[in-house]
Amino acid sequence: MIPSLFDYFAPSTLDETLLLLDQYGEDGKILAGGHSLIPAMRLRLAQPEKIIDIGALRPQLSYIKQNDNNIVIGAMTSYYEIETSTLLKETWPVLPEATSLIGDTQIRNWGTIGGSLVHADPSSDLPAVLLALGAELVLQSKAGGERLVPIEEFFVHIMTTSIEPNELLIEIRIPKPQGQKASYVKLANKASHYAVVGAAVVVSLNQGIIREIKIAFSGLAATPLRAEGVEEALKGQLPNDAIIAAACKECAAEVDALTDLHGSQEYRRAMAEVYAKRAIKAAISRNLSLIRL
Ligand SMILES: Cc1cc2nc3c(=O)[nH]c(=O)nc-3n(C[C@H](O)[C@H](O)[C@H](O)COP(=O)(O)OP(=O)(O)OC[C@H]3O[C@@H](n4cnc5c(N)ncnc54)[C@H](O)[C@@H]3O)c2cc1C
């Protein structure tokens, strides 16, 4: 299908981009990798009047670096850059691993971490991984400057976030690992590789006993979702198969799970239990000596 008519802007600086967002508000739409926005426009699910193409900001907003407390990723960093980052492989290898499961080579070459977060498709992978990692998002607007949003407060509903129409997502900050291990596993849609259900786990152990654990699901519900009941059940436990199975048993029974042609509500709830168990075991059995700072 052919998209509806729109005006096209290609700002060359961040200032110019923020000015355009300020000027056009709800009518303006950022174009990053375009892998979600363009299909939505072609289906006329999105009909923005003004497209603000931030392709020229790629050099400025594509980076993966560290400071004293955080691993910092620019919003326009591509999946490919995440997948191949030595810094991430040495700190949070779960990010390159999860990214390698996304779509296909074309999607990973051009799709951006910022686009994935703002698009907020419930079946996307990185939102759940970043939720388990406790990320913070840096949003910027001309009028308000920088705003820091914990990822727990970012996702509001299907494809809806707390970003304001005049804001640009600039950066993602992830606390550096302090002895935690992490994993992400998913039941992938066979065609697109989107998560029918996925589970991300970040766990810290003390002499084999679970000290802290965060579990987040993709694909299960309208937004990425923590499995707080499972987390509570596992804290202080010396995990084995029986303890993990008991903690995960019917863990999504109360969740308002999605239902669509890829899986019913009941199927997604059942798969959440299966993939939570797999992700917990994968995180726990990970060799920590390969992770360093
Ligand atoms: C065939 C196919 C298979 C896919 N498979 C998977 C998969 O397995 N797993 C997965 O997670 N995803 C998958 N995706 C989605 C893909 O990851 C998208 O690229 C990603 O979701 C959006 O990133 P983008 O850079 O292309 O964003 P765009 O499409 O350019 O933008 C998406 C939305 O985010 C907004 N936006 C983008 N960047 C910013 C910013 N910095 N600040 C403010 N707003 C911004 C745009 O305005 C738009 O509303 C798939 C997509 C396709 C087409």
Strand and helix layout:
Blueprint: E1 7-9, H1 14-24, E2 28-31, H2 37-42, E3 50-53, H3 58-61, E4 64-66, E5 70-74, H4 79-83, H5 86-91, H6 94-100, H7 105-110, H8 113-119, H9 126-132, E6 136-141, E7 145-150, E8 155-157, E9 160-161, E10 168-175, E11 181-188, E12 195-206, E13 209-218, E14 225-226, H10 228-234, H11 241-248, H12 265-284
Parallel strand pairs: 1-3, 2-3
Antiparallel strand pairs: 4-5, 5-10, 6-7, 6-10, 8-9, 11-12, 12-13, 13-14
Helix pairs in contact: 10-11, 11-12
Bound molecules: flavin-adenine dinucleotide (FAD).
Strand line-up of the largest beta sheet: 4-5-10-6-7
Integer-rounded radius of gyration:
19 Å
Number of strands: 14
Low-confidence stretches: none
Q: What is the quaternary state of this protein?
A: single chain
The appropriate CATH architecture of the largest domain is 2-Layer Sandwich
The rough form would be described as globular
Q: Which structural class fits the helix and strand makeup?
A: alpha+beta
Structure ligands: flavin-adenine dinucleotide
**Number of structural domains:** 3
Strand content: 25-35%
The end-to-end span amounts to: 49 Å
CATH classification class of the largest domain: Alpha Beta
Mean pLDDT equals 96
In which range does the helix fraction lie?
A: 25-40%
N-to-C SSE series?
EHEHEHEEHHHHHHEEEEEEEEEHHH
